[in-house]
Automatic annotation (TrEMBL):
Organism: Stachybotrys elegans
Source organism, top-level taxon: Eukaryota
Residue stretches spanning the membrane: 21-40, 52-74, 95-113, 133-163, 184-210, 230-255, 299-319, 325-346
Protein's recorded name: Uncharacterized protein
Keywords linked to the UniProt accession: Membrane, Transmembrane, Transmembrane helix
Length: 350
């Protein structure tokens, strides 16, 4: 392990520039989807009319084709920079595992009823941690990292955009329940809350947990200096964007979910008269429709963040052992979990 040096003003400035670049990498891919949605004259149409049974398979094929083309172009333009700091899969089993996981990601998004903006935000939150690791601790340039994340996000979101209209919450439909909860002041508050949770979790982990993990389980990591020097101001550009993405993905659809007919049955539940099966179901899933939204979306982000970060570390970065990848992933899973729980409390019904 290379020795670390005392930080200078020039180093602080360089770190600030890197953080700003990472933040740009997180917001730029989503801007593609948002900008496209602003030109949609009608919210009701899918952009391409195909039989329903064919839409998802074609979405998967388009996503893989776009990602393959994007990474090929990136490799040429960056002169193989990404390949220099990441490893290729050595067996067909590894290739199959990554491909299967990507299909599962798209499956969860498609059959979970997500639209293109949801998928963009989902990919930002779940693919961002590995980007942060590569830029801050390895030699990958911010420009190449931005491009790689953009390829992942756009290759997933654009096929969804072709076949599925934006949801009411992303169109700010006038018939949306609790529409006032999407006003700017509350959105700023939930973004700030989410950003604080990500910041505290990340900084404390970098200062007190991850340096030891990096030494033990990340054998090819070039430096530990960004971990020892982590501060709330240094991570803010990144965590602010994670907070905004989490707020849009979790809080907005949760807060604007109205009361469902099934909600009345929850209040009428009588454990004295219920069967064992009904009692178990009520204890496990006896929540209102609104609460189920925040539970589902928080669970989705935590699972995708954990698995994506783990796979990217163990299968794409040299010298990362499974234990180290799992612990690094856990840091981001905890941040996502606490963020979802906090946003659920903010939008909780009286």
């Amino acid at each position: 392990m290379a020795p670390t040096l005392r930080r200078s003003a020039a180093a602080d400035k360089a770190e600030s520039e890197v953080d700003e670049a990472i933040a740009a990498s997180i917001v730029a891919p989503a801007a593609v989807v948002v900008a496209a949605s602003e030109h949609v004259p009608s919210a009701q149409r899918p952009r391409v009319e195909l039989p329903a049974a064919a839409q998802f398979p074609i979405t998967v094929l388009l996503s893989f084709a776009a990602a393959s083309m994007g990474y090929s172009v990136l490799g040429e333009l960056s002169k193989g920079e990404l390949a220099a700091v990441t490893r290729t899969q050595e067996t067909w089993q590894e290739v199959g595992l990554l491909a299967t996981w990507r299909v599962l990601e798209l499956t969860l998004g498609w059959f979970g009823g997500l639209d293109s903006l949801d998928v963009a935000l989902m990919d930002l939150l779940s693919h961002g941690p590995s980007l942060y690791l590569l830029v801050r601790f390895y030699t990958l340039s911010p420009a190449t990292a931005i491009s790689a994340l953009a390829i992942d996000v756009v290759s997933a979101a654009v096929p969804f955009y072709l076949f599925r209209p934006l949801s009411d919450v992303h169109r700010a439909s006038p018939n949306l329940p609790n529409r006032e909860l999407l006003d700017a002041p509350l959105q700023l508050y939930t973004t700030a809350l989410s950003s604080v949770i990500y910041s505290v979790t990340l900084v404390l982990s970098l200062r007190f947990l991850l340096p030891r993990i990096f030494v033990l389980y990340f054998s090819h990591i070039p430096t530990l200096e960004p971990a020892y020097a982590a501060s709330y101001t240094s991570v803010l550009p990144v965590t602010l964007l994670f907070g905004a993405a989490a707020s849009l993905f979790i809080f907005a659809p949760f807060a604007t979910t109205g009361k469902a007919k099934e909600d009345d049955k929850i209040g009428e539940f009588d454990p004295a008269e219920a069967s064992l099966g009904q009692t178990v179901w009520w204890n496990f899933w006896g929540y209102t429709a609104k609460a189920k939204v925040v539970i589902r979306r928080t669970a989705l982000i935590t699972v995708l963040t954990g698995v994506n970060t783990y796979l990217n570390c163990t299968m794409n970065i040299y010298g990362v052992e499974p234990t180290g990848a799992a612990i690094y992933s856990l840091v981001w899973v905890v941040a996502a979990l606490f963020t979802g729980m906090s946003l659920g409390l903010v939008g909780e019904d009286e």
